[in-house]
Design goal:
CATH superfamily of the largest domain: 2-enoyl-CoA Hydratase, Chain A, domain 1
CATH topology of the largest domain: 2-enoyl-CoA Hydratase, Chain A, domain 1
Number of helices: 18
InterPro entries: ClpP/crotonase-like_dom_sf, PDZ, PDZ_sf, Peptidase_S41A, Tail-specific_protease
Radius of gyration: 30 Å
GO biological process, one term: proteolysis
Keywords: Hydrolase, Protease, Serine protease
Family: Belongs to the peptidase S41A family.
Helix content: 40-55%
Protein name: C-terminal processing peptidase-3. Serine peptidase. MEROPS family S41A
CATH architecture of the largest domain: Alpha-Beta Complex
Strand content: 15-25%
Number of domains: 4
Structural class: alpha+beta
Number of strands: 23
Largest sheet: 6 strands, antiparallel
CATH class of the largest domain: Alpha Beta
Shape: globular
């Protein structure tokens, strides 16, 4: 017994010494970290001081510090950023709330001149008969010549109820004129449109996940339910995300109480958290489609990923962006702040959809995608296979068609915009937005309008032909093929003249969209475009086909696996073979 007691005492003493040694090592490590931090801050402050005192020209000290901080954060990820006091209001407008005092119009610069690009229904600009295409010469007697976009925007914004005077030049009006408006509270909605579409389906377009986005989706859903829809389409295309908690609330509209939606995991355990639904759903049963594209990110991917993992909705469109990172803001002295990536988020199946690996960059600093061979398989509630590391892959993939070069040129050169202005001047009214279409005669009028306009562009075929000439010249073979080259070039030029006819349908689409917005504003853009929207049409078709809808959500046949990477498949087969060999 005595020997055992001595042994225990020695064991405890050894353990105590080991604990003290570990504690000492930890303190030494901690102190070393503090020393390195103090040392580097001292170096930074000393460099700043010497530059500020000795640099040959005057410097902007605030800009210098921000440049230094930005460079420090640049090696992390694009979402970790420093916001100085001067940019706080813009930051809040972009990330928190889209509420400010203004006139309800957007502007753009063209050849140094300021033009109105769009006005929004119900706000001072629209009520005061300000038109898209109007040139703004002065705001409150301040000449806009030489002003940039931000400077003009600041002049337009101000306190609610404050007067604002615009000096405007309009093409069909001989002399410039004044408009006296009163600024109003401008709150851009998160839900930019909702209504019924073909097939008796309810449609909700959500643009961002800022304050009250869940409340706006709830209100839209309540109104749509009054019309007894056969299904709901939630459009998250080009929605870059926002507040994570708003995403959870929106999923809760369609999913039962106490269901895990998303969890965040990071370095600090106290910041790890799991978000679950907290109330009974508003619509747990109606067929549901979520539309996504390559610009759907962050909170959009939480909604799409959670509803896919829970087999509650069919996802239609293209693979989403792949942003699985969570940010938190921290207040800094002098009313500045820093936004830091604190965690990654994981949807119900356990997958993280982050596509870019910012931690393991290449030697040149470039960011790489998560390799297919490192992507893992996860299971939805019904056992469908889904994968991490590459965004949300849709259940039904719809190829996103790219506009032809001629269409892009007409939009980029603002000729579509300009013609809409001309059309609006000549036509007091048009048909309702859903049925509005340009006749062949009106389209021919547009072609005539373009006769003396410059909208030069290079087709893909012309680029290939130019490359052929360059390579043939390098190989000293061009003289041998010059005749054929010139012949092809002549034929391509002749064919190019037919592009306005060849691509008539898509050009008409963007023309009708722009023209409708002059009469019915943003609502008109959506409703005019419905007839061209292939993803919307597929959504309606899928929800009407009850057998297909059930097959997708149950994971039957080809719907069992969603977006499996080719290399991941090969790696898994190799791993399975190794297991069999063992």
């Amino acid at each position: 017994m005595k020997q055992g007691l001595v042994f225990k005492k020695e064991y405890k003493r050894a353990g105590l010494f080991a604990g003290i040694a570990l504690l000492a090592a930890g303190i030494v490590g901690f102190n070393d970290d503090l020393f390195q931090i103090s040392k580097n801050l001292d170096v930074f402050a000393s460099v700043y001081k010497e530059v500020n005192i000795n640099y040959v020209d005057d410097i902007n000290s605030a800009k210098l510090v921000k440049t230094g901080v930005d460079a420090m954060l640049d090696g992390l990820d694009p979402y970790t950023e420093f916001v100085p006091e001067s940019e706080i209001e813009d930051y809040k407008l972009h990330y928190v709330s889209t509420q400010y005092g203004g006139i309800g119009a957007s502007i753009f610069l063209r050849n140094g001149k300021v033009f109105v690009s769009e006005v929004f229904a119900g706000f001072p600009a629209q009520k005061g008969d300000v038109h898209p295409g109007d040139q703004l010469l002065k705001i409150n007697d301040v000449d806009l010549n030489g002003k940039n976009n931000d400077q003009v925007s600041q002049l337009l914004k101000g306190s609610k109820g404050a007067a604002i005077k615009l000096f405007i030049k309009r093409d069909n009006t001989p002399q410039p004129f004044e408009k006296n408006l009163v600024r109003d509270e401008i709150k851009q909605p998160n839900v930019s449109y909702f209504g019924m579409v073909d097939g008796n389906m309810g449609y909700i377009k959500l643009d961002k996940f800022l304050e009250n986005s869940a409340a706006e989706v709830t209100n839209a859903l309540v109104e749509l339910k009054k019309k007894n829809p056969s299904g709901i389409i939630l459009d998250l295309r080009s929605n870059g995300g926002g507040i994570l908690q708003e995403a959870v609330k929106i999923v809760n509209l369609f999913v039962q109480k106490d269901v895990e939606i998303v969890s965040q995991k990071g370095k600090i355990k106290e910041k790890n958290f799991t978000y679950s639904t907290i109330s009974a759903p508003l619509e747990p049963d109606l067929p549901l489609v979520v539309l996504v594209n390559s610009h759907s990110a962050s909170a959009s991917e939480i909604v799409a990923g959670a509803l896919q993992d829970l087999d509650r909705a069919v996802i239609i469109g293209q693979r989403s962006y792949g942003k699985g990172l969570v940010q938190q803001t921290f207040n800094l002295p002098y009313n500045s702040l820093v936004k830091i990536t604190i965690a990654k988020y994981y949807v119900p199946s356990g997958r993280c959809i982050q596509e870019l690996d910012y931690t393991h960059r290449k030697d040149d600093g470039s960011v790489v995608k998560v390799a297919d061979s490192l992507i893992h398989e996860f299971k939805t509630k019904n056992g469908r296979s889904v994968y991490d590391g590459s965004g949300i892959y849709p259940d039904l993939f719809i190829k996103q068609e790219k506009f032809a070069n001629v269409t892009q040129a007409l939009v980029g050169k603002l000729l579509i915009f300009d013609y809409a202005t001309v059309y609006h001047d000549k036509h007091a009214k048009i048909a309702d937005a859903r049925s509005f279409t340009l006749s062949d005669g009106e389209y021919n009028d547009f072609i005539k309008y373009l006769a003396d306009k410059n909208y030069s562009y290079t087709t893909a075929s012309e680029k290939l032909l130019t490359t052929l000439k360059v390579e043939a010249t390098k190989d000293k073979q061009f003289n041998d093929i010059q005749a054929e080259y010139e012949g092809l070039k002549t034929k391509l030029i002749a064919s190019k003249k037919n592009d306005l006819v060849q691509h008539k349908d898509e050009i008409k689409q963007v023309l009708e969209n722009e023209i409708a917005s002059r009469y019915y504003y943003e609502k008109g853009r959506y409703e005019t475009n419905f007839k061209y929207d292939k993803e919307l049409a597929q959504s309606v078709k899928t929800m009407q086909d009850k057998a297909q809808l059930a097959s997708i959500l149950k994971g039957e046949g080809s719907y069992k696996v969603i977006g499996k990477p080719v290399l991941a498949m090969a790696a898994k087969k190799a791993a399975d073979k190794d297991d069999d060999d063992e």
